[in-house]
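Example 3.2
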Amino acid sequence: MKIILNSIGILAVILGVLGIFLPLLPTTPFLLLASACFARASPRLHNWLQTNHVFGKYLRDYENGHGIPLRGKIWILIFMWGSMSYSIWRTDHLWVRLLIVLTGTCVTIYLTRFVPTMRVKK
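Structure, written as tokens:
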């Protein structure tokens, strides 16, 4: 089972990193999946993910129930809708455009309504 969980975790990290650059490929869900797999199968890989200098702090805060800072939510929405707008502009298929808008709307609702906003201490 550890081999399967570690394999899923590694694949999820790869997809999560690709999601930073590719529209419609989510980053956060894949990284959360990877973290959950590593937490059960490999403390060493889980620690590596949690201490990563790029996204480790965000994963720790999210997993500890602190949420995402407001500034982070704003940047997520700006980049997500920016890349989705480009994808909508580049496609000629109405059903693809509608699917992109539906996906973006669902992610926006989830992020703004269900993910806690972390209070930043100064």
